[in-house]
């Protein structure tokens, strides 16, 4: 009797442990939902809106940072310097979890002008993250 109870208890514990483990696709979905839910409180210089979109089949997340800046060469050069710093800061604050990148999720991050044209695009992968995070 005790042996049967132990076996059933063990089986229930194993099922619960397996159910609580999240796969990468679930983590991707959760990140996108959480990111968009907190996006209205996001603060960064010149950024008026940020959004995330997940592509489960491609293991990719697209981050968009819409700015108040006009599309011109001066702002484009400034964005090329400030945007990587913004992304590094977000990784440092775990606003973008490095764990997702190490699990194979690619981040395509866009820094956009006020007319939604691209100032800078950063593609963050396992291979490129070390260059972004170095001081």
From TrEMBL:
It comes from the Bacteria. This is Lipoprotein. It comes from Flavobacterium johnsoniae.
């Amino acid at each position: 009797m005790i042996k049967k109870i132990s076996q059933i208890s063990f089986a229930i514990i194993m099922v619960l442990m397996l159910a609580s483990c999240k796969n990468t696709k679930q983590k991707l979905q959760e990140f996108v939902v959480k990111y968009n839910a907190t996006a209205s409180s996001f603060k960064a210089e010149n950024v008026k809106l940020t959004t995330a979109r997940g592509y489960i089949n491609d293991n990719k997340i697209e981050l968009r940072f819409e700015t108040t800046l006009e599309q011109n060469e001066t702002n484009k050069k400034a964005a090329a310097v400030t945007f990587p710093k913004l992304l590094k800061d977000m990784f440092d604050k775990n606003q973008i979890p490095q764990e997702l990148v190490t699990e194979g999720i690619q981040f395509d991050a866009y820094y956009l002008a006020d007319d939604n044209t691209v100032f800078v695009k950063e593609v963050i992968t396992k291979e490129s993250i070390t260059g972004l995070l170095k001081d």
